[in-house]
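Purpose: get a first structural picture of the assembly so the mutagenesis plan has something to point at.
Setup: two entries, given in the order below. No constraints added.
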Amino acid sequence: MTPSNQTTRFLGSLRAVRRFSDRAIADPVLRDILEAGRRTGSSKNTQPWQIVVVRDREMLKRLSELGGFAGYIAAAQVDIVLVMDSANNAFDCGRLAERLMLAAWTHGIGSNIASLFPDENARKAKELLGIPDGRWVRQTVAFGYPADEKATRVSSTPGMGALMPLGRKPLGEFVSWEHYGKRA
Amino acid sequence: MTPSNQTTRFLGSLRAVRRFSDRAIADPVLRDILEAGRRTGSSKNTQPWQIVVVRDREMLKRLSELGGFAGYIAAAQVDIVLVMDSANNAFDCGRLAERLMLAAWTHGIGSNIASLFPDENARKAKELLGIPDGRWVRQTVAFGYPADEKATRVSSTPGMGALMPLGRKPLGEFVSWEHYGKRA
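Result (structure tokens, whole complex):
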């Protein structure tokens, strides 16, 4: 067993992509991504989710107007709307999103999570897609092949670089050992 | 590009493991898992998390008493306590947990999520580990090599099989196309 293996390097290589090419995602590839997502674990295996797969260009444009930084959905090939049983399932929703994004990434397909925000926008999305009132919708994941080599860099998306810090905290600021704040 | 590739099959193969062997997790392997976790994406790249890595057997036993079905933590090699900035970060917490579990799985290491529940138990865990009041703690992930070949089956854990449905919903009950409830 190698300490650092190919698959953990793959997991660590996932980057948000917000600029997509117009290359279509083939049906068998989409199905493969959905299949990996379907198998995601959840609290007591309740699988408290449904997903709505949106490829219709007009609907993608409408969804792109329902989040503060969701404009890129308009140019995505697919947007997956995550529909949860209740707001208490946010943790499981995150597991599902991460799984779907990694599965897409194995095919070279980039993705990004958009929040439908504020609540009024989430309500509009539910109305557009016929999602029952009782269900909880907040996140969607947009998918597409990266527009170019720079598309995995936040700084290449107009306006995004200034909005968020780049990179990740080092292990020394992320991990405590045995007691909170006890660094290695 | 193959429609179903080796890595998506790997992603779909993750199973919850609640019965662990006493084989230690080597430091470089643990570090590799943490490194993959460290790189997890989050809302606006806020990285709203800290983790506490627990290997002390006495502390593992104490944590195992702080959840409804957390008993297996007592026999884990490592328990990672997920410390979030606030309850609003539950979605990102789920992304981090999924990433850590998949990274461990690449090394053949099983894991399971336990909820520290009710709130009083989460409070106790924070006290034991010195986690500041203002932080949000609900989930931990316990890690260890599977005890045996059957350890990936829910039904092999005493009492668990009766608690939850086995298997996953088929795609036809999980996916809507373009409109909620519109099946393929």
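Chain A touches chain B through 83 residues (CB under 8 Å).
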